[in-house]
Write a structure and sequence with these properties.
Oligomer: homodimer
Number of domains of chain A: 3
Number of helices of chain A: 13
Largest sheet of chain A: 6 strands, parallel
CATH architecture of the largest domain in chain A: 3-Layer(aba) Sandwich
Largest interface: A-B, 51 and 52 residues
Mean pLDDT of chain A: 93
Structural class of chain A: alpha/beta
Order of helices and strands of chain A: HHHHEHEHEHEEHEHEHEHEHEHEE
CATH topology of the largest domain in chain A: Rossmann fold
Strand order of the largest sheet of chain A: 2-1-3-4-5-11
Distance between the termini of chain A: 78 Å
Low-confidence stretches of chain A: none
Strand content of chain A: 15-25%
Helix content of chain A: 40-55%
Chain lengths: 343, 343
DNA sequence: TTGTATGCGTTATCAA
DNA sequence: TTGATAACGCATACAA
């Protein structure tokens, strides 16, 4: 019964007493084979524990039935929600999804990309370290559909799916001004990240439009957008003289906001009375924070789903044209900016 | 220049004016080919943008150079840290890692598993929904190394890597008793999960050994181990009459603990004075909580690394014997159980 | 309806 | 040192 290697179509054919072509037909065009032989073949497959060898099928077909997503930062739950959206869309299309993580390192990103091209993935989704990197263009040139996720593809060379970050910055700061704040800090970094710049720009735009003094909008650059950086930003904030100290902070992502929140509470500040905080992304932990975090919500799963649909379209539809999809962010107000109780 | 499909060794051979075997040699045994031809071939490869087709190589080799990890719950950062550890070990062995997520659903798990077997992955790591499920045994029977992660493989059929959960429960509760607590709640669920039972058992063991009254250790079962469940457990706790209400809670994971923490703070309790809280896993968000969370630390990355080494060994070493590795958990005391300041 | 033959891209064996 | 050739497992065009 047990043979050393995995049983192949040939083994199944022999066992069922049919030719190898018939076995293949049972799998791929069952309607052309008679019920009797089909059943015989199916039993043989079950008996032998036959499982199709995907490599062989793929070699024959020229391409795989797999998509891949290279995410930027595995420690940020935001990307997992995006991945989940991609996964669901892939599932609908009967595709596999391989998830890789570059951790923000260009080198790792390239290693993953190389491997994925070797695997001949049918499509590639990526939140790149550098959206302008030339290896992305090279992959696209090979005919592999590439979709940029959570970044805008400059120059329209790729499809991309993102949220309107300028608008996101606008609604965050607009909300704070509505809550009565007149001195606001924008916290985030590094500035090399396009999103940081755009969210900051949105903040500045609306600040000016509302007639606020430019000096009262402080930008506090950080080395990264992590919890740790958020804490240290909080310390820097605390170091400012009281009369110039912002009464509210807009953090370019929730990790930063969570760090800031923690530091502020530890320092004895009341949230939002002493310091109001707005984050960005609305990850699950935002709502679950000790003081539930107001955040600019990105439709995380939808982002992923839409991106997956675009790769699939580019891969299958000869009429495909690149699109830059832009989603509208939405403010979710919670206790970190709005005090429920008035004492 | 541009040909429709990806260039193959044949194309490279033609372009370099050598035979296809020579091209293969350049890739796999460069020492046997003369410097001059090697260089010529390499230039041709670069010119054409040749990238080895992994499917073909794999078909030839019979197995892939990929490992896979099927994780149980993508929304729990714990599993991402484990995955990261696996990834690092895979990288060292020059292997790819495919990450899948069953989300606790047996059906998804099986779909992923099927696909991975079709891909002929070289080894499989999994935190299974049900460690006793027979499909795992079937995969192992095919000769694919299977390692159970974060669960103990009962019966020794597989290798497994886990933490001593009974001990984890012991040190958590021991710590609370040391802090002076005499009424403690253990929160977690569902009870079908072996770890929940074991951590609870450890708690009961040490409770008895320390001579405490059995009645004063309350088990509060939950439907799952999520932030939301933690919050609702907090509400149930608050509903208990004050004199029977526990002064401390041991949650079987950090997500629960974070939810409980949030609910308790929202209800105006002081942490740890009114309620002390211990979590389990020590995920990154534990330290970053508003009140930093005391937690039973699992060596998350180490778990992953060790698991990967075991699959690799099982795959390559004919002398391989199954092992059940057990790591020792460690208490990380933070502000949620120990008040720094005495007013 | 079923069988036979060919090729996908790679590696390895053997001969030159 | 290099070249020719077979084989991996599957899908398909074509023949029977």
């Amino acid at each position: 019964m047990a043979i050393g290697r995995s049983p192949s179509v040939k083994d199944v054919a022999a066992s069922a007493g049919v030719s190898l072509g018939t076995v293949s037909n049972v799998m791929n065009r069952p309607e052309v084979v008679s019920a009797a032989t089909r059943e015989r073949v199916e039993r043989a497959m079950a008996d032998l524990g036959f499982i199709r060898n995907e490599s062989a099928r793929q070699l024959r077909a020229g391409t795989s039935r797999a998509l891949a997503y290279v995410m930027l930062d595995g420690s940020n739950p935001f990307f997992h929600d995006v991945a989940q959206g991609i996964e669901l869309a892939a599932e609908d299309a009967d595709m596999s999804l391989f998830i890789c993580n570059s951790n923000g390192r260009p080198g790792r990103e390239e290693v993953h990309l190389d491997r994925l091209v070797q695997q001949r993935v049918q499509g590639l989704l990526i939140t790149p370290v550098d959206p302008g990197a030339k290896h992305l263009r090279e992959i696209a040139k090979r005919g592999i559909p590439v979709v940029i996720v959570d970044r805008v593809a400059a120059g329209g060379e790729f499809c991309s799916v993102a949220v309107d970050d300028v608008l996101g910055g606008r609604i965050a700061v607009e909300h704070l001004v509505e809550q009565g704040h007149r001195r606001v800090a924008v916290i985030g970094g590094p500035e090399s990240i396009g999103q940081v710049r755009e969210r900051l720009e949105g903040a500045r735009q609306v600040w000016a439009e509302l007639g606020m003094a430019a000096d009262d909008l402080t930008f506090l650059p950080t080395a990264g957008s992590t919890v740790v950086e958020g804490r240290s930003a909080g310390e820097r904030l605390a170091g400012l003289p009281v009369r110039r100290r912002p009464t509210a902070a807009f953090c370019v992502n929730d990790l930063l906001a969570l760090g800031l929140l923690q530091q502020a509470i530890g320092a004895g500040l009341r949230i939002p009375e002493d310091l109001a905080i707005v984050g960005f992304d609305d990850i699950e932990f935002a709502a679950a924070a000790a003081v539930p975090l107001t955040s600019v919500r990105q439709p995380r799963q939808e982002l992923g789903r839409a991106a997956a649909k675009l790769v699939l379209d580019e891969s299958g539809n000869p009429e495909h044209r690149h699109e830059q999809l832009s989603f509208v962010p939405e403010l979710v107000a919670r206790a970190s900016t709005v005090s429920r109780r008035n004492y």
